[in-house]
Amino acid sequence: MKKLAFFLILYSNFTFTQSAKLDKQEVKVLAQIWGKLGLTEKRRWDFEEDPCSGQGEWQFSVRCDCSFNKNSTCRVTAIYIISENVSTALPVEFTKLLKLEVLDVGQNYLKGTIPSEWATMRLITLTLEDNRLSGPFPTTLTSITSLQYLNIRGNDFSGLIPEHISKLNNLERLFLSSNKFRGLSVAIENLTNLNDLRISDNNFTGKIPSFISRWTQITKLELLGSSFEGPIPSSISLLTQLDNLKISDLKVQRSTFPSVEKMTELRTLILRNCLIHGTIPNYIGNLRHLHVLYMFPIL
């Protein structure tokens, strides 16, 4: 009897979830977004099929939560529009999806910048990588203080990383690589929850900032081909949680080999074209997790 009762409970919950449908207003909003992005012309997006059903194209593009109210009305919490060859501007209408937490529109041809109306959104994850977005760092993003993951790599953003970025104090992962940024505001040092920072392939000027030592929780740091000048700051030795450190193509001033002895979790160490002189320290052989080691040349 206990097994039968357990089965009936599971069946009841399953049926309840399956009968829940997306809020009618949000269905209209999705139709507006899909229309503005030109998606309705690319495939047969069936708006007669409930977007929360997990059927057809919807199973790859929309995630819903049906537990917000007693009437079991679903709300959109995640949208994935990846590699769809979209070449429009970003629609303002995303702001009408009040429960949206995850938005991934990477690997398209989106142009323009971030709509100012997006400042009201409460996203946790935003992926805009590999598009054609341009202009200065979009300050609109600094108002989305709920963000924990922000990826705008592979666009045409330029100029300075503004002071307002310090408002994103919940950020854990920040990917700014492959843009045309030329300066980092000191305010970025206040993002002390960062555990993954990637700012490779930019046009930064000056030396690697010494304030990176404040990111004591960081596990991944990538500074490949970002036009920084040497030397590698000695304060990098304080980042003892690093498991991945990549620095390359430093200019002007030579560096001594950085002290990584206390980075006991280090798995990948790349120091390519960093004007390093001297000898490789013996303790490198004692880093038991180290799998990738690339250092060239040593002067």
Task: Walk me through the structure.
The protein is of the alpha/beta class. The protein has a single domain (77-298), classed as Ribonuclease Inhibitor (Leucine-rich repeat, LRR (right-handed beta-alpha superhelix), Alpha-Beta Horseshoe). It has 4 helices and 17 strands. The longest helix has 18 residues, at 2-19. It is elongated, with a radius of gyration of 23 Å. Residues 1-18 have low confidence and may be disordered. Its main location: membrane. One of its GO terms (cellular component) is membrane.
Which descriptors would you attach to this protein?
alpha/beta, Leucine-rich repeat, LRR (right-handed beta-alpha superhelix), four-stranded parallel β-sheet, 17 strands, 25% strand, disordered N terminus
Beta content comes to 25-35%
Identify the CATH class. Alpha Beta
What would the CATH topology be?
A: Leucine-rich repeat, LRR (right-handed beta-alpha superhelix)
Query: pLDDT below 50 for ≥5 consecutive residues: which ranges?
Result: 1-18
How is this structure best summarized?
By secondary structure, the protein is α/β, with parallel strands linked by helices. It is built from four helices and 17 strands. It has one domain (77-298): Ribonuclease Inhibitor (Leucine-rich repeat, LRR (right-handed beta-alpha superhelix)), CATH 3.80.10.
